[in-house]
Write a structure and sequence with these properties.
This protein has about 110 residues and is an all-alpha fold. The protein contains four helices and no strands. The N and C termini lie far apart (about 50 Å). The mean pLDDT is about 90.
Length: about 110
């Protein structure tokens, strides 16, 4: 937050107003761009995971990547409207992961 000249009080006020300013947007952009490569590097580990835990890690990764895409679509303003995974999106991710696990076994 210091890097973006945001104090806790500033952040509290922005959250209360549900209104992002340029400092907040810059911070969110930085955080999204910082986080995205971690998910990409994590994907490379999937083949090395115990098959019992692999689907859970895949769901976490794909859900996280989806949220990052949603944050970008919102112009990094997560205060006006928080990005979430709808029930339909959760079901889609679950089924995709489950089917992949079934067909890889067979």
């Amino acid at each position: 937050m210091r890097q973006f000249d945001l104090t806790e009080d500033d952040l509290g006020e922005l959250i209360k107003r549900k209104e992002a300013d340029d400092r907040f947007i810059a911070m969110e952009r930085y955080l999204v761009e910082y986080t995205q490569p971690m998910f990409a590097r994590g994907r490379a580990l999937w083949p090395h995971l115990n098959p019992a835990i692999r689907p859970v890690i895949k769901l976490f990764t794909e859900g996280g990547e989806y949220i990052l895409r949603e944050i970008r679509k919102r112009g990094y303003d997560v205060l006006a409207q928080r990005p979430t995974l709808s029930k339909a999106r959760k079901a889609q991710l679950y089924l995709k992961t489950k089917l992949a696990a079934i067909f890889r076994r067979g």
